[in-house]
Design goal:
Number of helices: 10
Bound molecules: flavin mononucleotide
Strand order of the largest sheet: 9-8-7-4-3-16-15-10
Mean pLDDT: 95
Largest sheet: 8 strands, parallel
Oligomer: single chain
Helix content: 25-40%
Structural class: alpha/beta
Length: 313
């Protein structure tokens, strides 16, 4: 009997497969296509206190093995989310993590307060890593101090699991993960998108209205796996890994590198039915390797054998 159940602090998940923020709407958009309660968790599109229009088009462009986006955190704002989306997510029994964004520390705190009082929120993912907005967000996530301050401030006002989402656009992601842990985070999510740019050479203009955007999809996977591996060695709290997962083998790479759970973003745009394929692929792998519980696999990377082969060859 295969057991895919896992936990992120006090949050129990049916399985380690979560829909990544910004790639699954508020969850309900997919409810006619799949049973969204079967996912480990749904992570909402990033929410500010107030509604936001985001950037004008073009906001996405396809790139080799990936895509660039500069949506600019378009969203309905937390009050409409609580009034319109949460009741239905609750009724559908969805494990629901809300991705929150602020321009100031006080905004993160206010969002955390509002969502902690609302029924049907199971965790807060702190978006301190969006590369597509000028104010707040990534300014916190690019510095160990800033990360510490946001996590500490949110920690004080909520009992919900606090999960800062880290940016890969830094030199040493593990040191930032460590400060998040020191400030009381229950887990860290990584990675958000990598800053990138694409140019139309005929017009000599950038493809995106924002000029630069965030790169996601299979192109970033090896870098993201490396970052999960580095963070696993630096912190003890769970890691939620993501970046280019499109097959069961991709998810397994993150889990073996040290992720307790994984998120899938860009691949969901290509195949909204990917979830059952990922789940059955994980079960097939575990059966073949005689592993009963997914938790037994987390961080089981065998670097010692590799070192020996290297020395003897
Ligand atoms: C169109 C789009 C919108 C996104 N919006 C958000 C967001 O609102 N908040 C956030 O933390 N991450 C956001 N992300 C980042 C994803 O959640 C994820 O971290 C990243 O895309 C890497 O995973 P992937 O390669 O599986 O897509 C967005 C990504 C894309 C492609």
């Amino acid at each position: 009997m295969i057991d895919l159940a896992t936990s992120i602090g006090t949050l129990k998940l049916k399985n380690p497969l979560m829909a990544a923020s910004g790639c699954f709407g508020y969850g309900l958009e997919y409810a006619d296509a799949i049973d969204i309660s079967t996912l480990g968790a749904v992570v909402s599109k990033g929410l500010f206190l107030k509604p936001r229009e985001g950037h004008p088009p073009e906001r996405i462009v396809e790139t080799p093995s990936g895509m660039l986006n500069a949506i600019g955190l378009q969203g309905i704002g937390v009050h409409r989310y609580v009034a319109e989306k949460l009741p239905e997510l609750r009724a559908r029994n969805v494990t629901n993590i809300v991705n929150i964004c602020g321009s100031t520390l006080d905004e993160y705190v206010e969002l955390a307060r509002i969502l902690s009082d609302a029924e049907g929120v199971h965790g807060l993912e702190l978006n301190i890593s969006c590369p597509n907005i000028k104010e707040g967000g990534i300014t916190f996530g690019c510095s160990p101090h800033g990360t510490f301050d946001v996590v500490e401030a949110v920690r004080k006002v909520t009992r919900l699991p606090v999960i800062p989402k880290l940016t890969p656009n830094v030199t040493d992601v593990a040191s930032i993960a460590k400060r998040a842990e020191d400030a009381g985070a229950d887990a860290v999510s990584l990675v958000n998108t990598f800053l990138g740019m694409a140019i139309d050479v005929e017009t000599r203009r950038p493809h995106l209205s924002n000029i630069v955007g965030g790169l996601s999809g299979p192109a970033i996977r090896p870098i993201a796996v490396r970052m999960v591996y580095e963070c696993r060695r630096a912190i003890r709290i769970p890691i939620i890994g993501m970046g280019g997962i499109a097959s069961p083998g991709d998810a397994l790479e993150f889990i073996i590198a040290g992720a307790t759970a994984v998120q899938v973003g860009t691949a969901n745009f290509v195949d909204p039915f990917i979830w059952s394929k990922l789940e059955s692929g994980l079960c097939e792998y575990m059966t073949r390797h005689r592993i009963t519980r997914i938790s037994e696999l987390v961080g089981t990377l065998d670097t010692a054998t590799r070192d020996k082969e290297w020395v003897s060859s």
